[in-house]
Design a protein that fits this description.
- By secondary structure, the protein is mostly helical.
- The protein folds into two domains: 99 residues, no CATH class; 65 residues, no CATH class.
- 43% of the residues lie in helices and 2% in strands.
- It has five helices and two strands.
- The chain has a two-stranded antiparallel sheet with strand order 1-2.
- A hairpin with a 6-residue loop joins strand 1 and strand 2.
- The protein starts with 10 loop residues before the first helix and ends in a 54-residue tail after the last strand.
Length: 176
């Protein structure tokens, strides 16, 4: 289901919600795991070659570091979506095999947009702002159902769509 009135976010913008100290912590975990694998496994006489131990340390540290970054992202993103931050963080940590993280991404709410006229928070899918009645997405002037921006005729009633008849000429971008 395509959610109208919401622009897709870039990965770089989503990463910015994670605090910088969490990135430092994840990097510290990668370095620590690499050192531990290289030194501790090196004392075993059946240990693999040093290059393999370093590679295993980097891989193990990267997995744990990514897990920490995902937990921090879930904590911040749940707050943006008006969900319980601590409940979803706890679910992501406690549910085994990262199923809590998968559950979060499946069950999370869509982000609300802001009205371009009055800056009120508007739920996804609204055609008009409940505060100032600004048209947020194109609607058919005959049946008042939502239509796509490039449509020339309403797919529901067959009426002609014109820019002067209440269909905005450009999509309204949501505030992210």
């Amino acid at each position: 289901m395509k959610i109208r009135n919401q622009t897709p976010t870039r990965f770089k913008d989503e990463i910015r919600i994670i605090p910088s100290w969490v990135f430092f912590l994840a990097g510290l975990i990668v370095v620590s795991a690499t050192v531990l694998f290289a030194v501790l496994l090196g004392e075993d006489r059946h240990a693999p070659a040093p290059a393999v131990r370093v590679l295993l340390g980097v891989m193990a540290g990267a997995v744990v570091g990514c897990y920490i970054l995902l937990i921090a992202y879930i904590n911040r993103d749940a707050g943006r979506r008006r969900m319980s931050r601590w409940l979803w963080t706890l679910v992501a940590i406690v549910v085994p095999n990262a199923l809590g993280i998968v559950l979060y991404f499946i069950l999370r709410k869509p982000r609300a947009a802001n009205c371009p006229q009055c800056d009120a928070e508007v739920e996804p899918g609204f055609s008009f702002c409940p505060r100032c009645r600004t048209c947020l997405q194109p609607v058919c002037p005959h049946c008042q159902r939502g239509v796509n921006l490039g449509d020339k005729f309403c797919p529901y009633c067959g009426g002609a769509l014109e820019a002067a008849a209440g269909v905005p000429s450009a999509p309204v971008r949501s505030q992210l």
